[in-house]
Design goal:
Strand content: 25-35%
Structural class: alpha/beta
Order of helices and strands: HHEHEHEEHEHEE
CATH class: Alpha Beta
CATH architecture: 3-Layer(aba) Sandwich
CATH topology: Rossmann fold
Number of domains: 1
Strand order of the largest sheet: 3-2-1-4-5-7-6
Radius of gyration: 16 Å
Shape: globular
CATH superfamily: Vaccinia Virus protein VP39
Largest sheet: 7 strands, mixed
Length: about 200
């Protein structure tokens, strides 16, 4: 996995003029800043945006190359991010946060269930999980994402994974995806917000 992401971004200039994820931006703009974890934060746009709004950001990805680019951009923008290189499959909750953001982290069931359990452990009481991922209808679109229905998400599956969170919002919808160079155009997404009580 590390080799895949290093290769993908080796010759790719990350476009930091592209806005952060719109669903995430709305959350950040309407929520009092605190601590936030952003797993699988590939190009760092969401992390940099949250930090610019006063959030204390921990993030991780699977590539040293991406880490270097993200930290350089953060420094140029005068914000601080704690960014680690970590295999998502080995992630364990060692710290709790006011919020966790998961964006386009579509995983096979054998990995997903354990990872989502650790994500719940990461939330403080009252903490919020904000998630956007490819929905099963994404198979009808050519804007990226897994081509395996089992790795795409639907509302019942995500509600089951996060059944111990209080459901604040869930919706599957078609929308225009603008997630960097690899995911552009119309697609199908699932959006979820839950709170740990």
């Amino acid at each position: 996995m590390k080799e895949f992401w290093n290769e993908r971004f080796a010759s790719q200039t990350i476009d930091y003029d592209i806005e952060p994820n719109r669903f995430f931006k709305r959350f950040i703009n309407t929520t009092k800043p605190g601590s936030i974890l952003l797993p699988a934060e590939s190009d760092g746009r969401n992390a940099i945006y949250a930090a610019s709004k006063g959030w204390q950001v921990d993030a991780f990805g699977s590539s040293e190359l991406i880490k270097a680019k993200v930290l350089q951009e953060a420094a140029e923008r005068g914000v601080q991010i704690n960014y680690e290189v970590l295999d998502l499959k080995k992630f364990k909750a060692v710290k709790q946060y006011d919020a966790v953001g998961l964006f386009y982290v579509n995983l096979p069931e054998r990995i997903r269930m354990g990872f989502h359990k650790e994500i719940c452990k990461c939330l403080k009481s009252g903490g919020i999980l904000v998630l956007e991922a490819f929905a099963k209808d994404q198979l009808n679109f050519a804007t990226g994402g897994p081509k395996d229905n089992a790795i795409l998400y639907d509302a019942p599956g995500i509600c089951n994974d996060f059944q111990h969170l209080y459901l604040l919002h869930i919706r599957e919808k078609e929308t225009v995806i603008n997630e960097g160079a690899f995911y552009q155009g119309r697609g199908a997404v699932l959006r979820f917000v839950g709170q740990k009580l």
